[in-house]
Amino acid sequence: MPRQQFQIETGGQGLYEFTDAAADALSDMGAEDGLLTVFTRHTSCSLLIQENADPDVVRDLREFFHRIVPPSDDASMGWVRHRSEGPDDMPAHIKAALTAVSLSIPVDKGRMMLGTWQGLYLFEHRDRPHRRQIVLQFLPG
Amino acid sequence: MPRQQFQIETGGQGLYEFTDAAADALSDMGAEDGLLTVFTRHTSCSLLIQENADPDVVRDLREFFHRIVPPSDDASMGWVRHRSEGPDDMPAHIKAALTAVSLSIPVDKGRMMLGTWQGLYLFEHRDRPHRRQIVLQFLPG
Amino acid sequence: MPRQQFQIETGGQGLYEFTDAAADALSDMGAEDGLLTVFTRHTSCSLLIQENADPDVVRDLREFFHRIVPPSDDASMGWVRHRSEGPDDMPAHIKAALTAVSLSIPVDKGRMMLGTWQGLYLFEHRDRPHRRQIVLQFLPG
To answer: Which InterPro entries match (chains A, B, C) (predicted)?
Structure first.
């Protein structure tokens, strides 16, 4: 079946590239021409296609999201009600809502049609390490 | 044809879960393995996959978006030009741009491969009640 | 093969509608019922479905994103590290992360199932003109 699942072990907040793992999975599926869908089965991490050349880009992305959605023990976040799972939890849901849980990528002759600088990232929004499930589904077309 | 449409009646701003309605539609379509695309035909509401356990999560999501994009009669929004449809209208377009009009969800044996806490939501950004059209398209794969 | 590529020449920051070009490409592909995926192969522009009736809507969208992510030579952006490509570059990556690199649109009898007010836009986040590559992939279903 043209589907693969794998897990990404995260070490707390940050962006974790998995472009190579996705390319390997496509190859394992025998994909030719079609559409790859990448989906993450969580509500406190998300998916992103972003520049993978200068590591400062993902560092700055993380910093921006931290500034726009600070931890809920920050003075500016007194309005947050969902606090039972820690000060990083509700901000994680918000950051996930601002980004994406799925990516759709055209595939040509078994290769994702990514631009030169595009890489696939899991964006972990929780402080503690997590094991995140990724589903890759290929549809021929 | 592996497509269904339904409407969601909203009662003003907020998140409206339709996970069960989507699952029923999948079943009606006789879906097995493949990809479900959910699409909304509007520019002032959007779609979200988010936690459906604690109702405070969707309440906080709504509050965050209200704070980052206040109504256009708020003092901080004096720069807004598109005002003819009311102070909730341009913020609705902005909130829609910050979230998503479509969701892509792998389907296994007729079931969406959602994580334990993931639910599908329509995010209504207008104050007045609206009838929102949802298109579900299933592609076998 | 049910895929088309074209380029959009942008003249700096702003939203560029390409609904008609996408409709023409669908027609050239002989598309009937199925799913259209639109993908852009860049990390400093993005894709958006938004209202194409009042031009103030896209002007206000651009203004909102400029205010929430100012150029990195703005006093509020002193934390940005990725500066080698100019003050518009890191904000461009952030704005791309806040919007989308792909759109998924159900197609009925060769026509995108867009709502009355929905148009497809390339959102250019760089100051200088760019030639942006768009991939359209149609899957019958």
So the answer is: UPF0047_YjbQ-like, YjbQ-like_sf
Question: What number of C-beta contacts closer than 8 Å exist between B and C?
Answer: 84
Domain boundaries, chain A: 3-140
Chain A residues within an 8 Å CB radius of C93: 50-51, 57, 60-61
Asked if A127 contacts A62 with a C-beta cutoff of 8 angstroms, the reply is no
| Position C56 confidence tier, pLDDT thresholds 50, 70, 90 | very high
- Kindly state the percentage of chain B with pLDDT values over 70: 99
Q: Which residues of B touch C48 (CB under 8 A)?
A: 97
Chain C contact set for B90 (CB, 8 A): 57, 60
Contact C2, A107 (CB under 8 A): no
Topology (CATH) of B3-140? Jelly Rolls (2.60.120)
pTM: 0.98
Hey, what are B24's tokens?
Answer: 């029923």
**Torsion sign (Cα): B2, B106, C118, C136:** negative
B91 contacts: CB under 8 Å, gap ≥ 6: B69, B70, B71, B72, B77, B125
| pLDDT > 90 in chain B, percent | 98
Which pLDDT tens digit goes with each residue over A24-39? 999 999 999 999 999 9
- Comparing alpha-carbon positions, the chain C residue that sits nearest to A99 is C98
Q: Radius of gyration over alpha carbons of chain A, in Å? A: 16
The nearest CA of chain B is from the CA of A53 a distance in Å of: 25
| Interface pTM, i.e. ipTM | 0.97
Q: Could you say which DSSP state residue C87 is in?
A: T
Residue A16 main-chain phi, psi, to 5 deg: -120, 115
Write out the E strands in B44-114: 45-51, 102-108, 111-112
Q: pLDDT by residue (tens digit) across C97-139?
A: 999 999 999 999 999 999 999 999 999 999 999 999 999 999 9
**Of B32, B33, B35, B41, which to mutate for an interface test with C (greatest number of C Cβ within 10 Å)?**
B41
Give the number of other Cβ atoms within 10 Å of residue A74's Cβ: 13
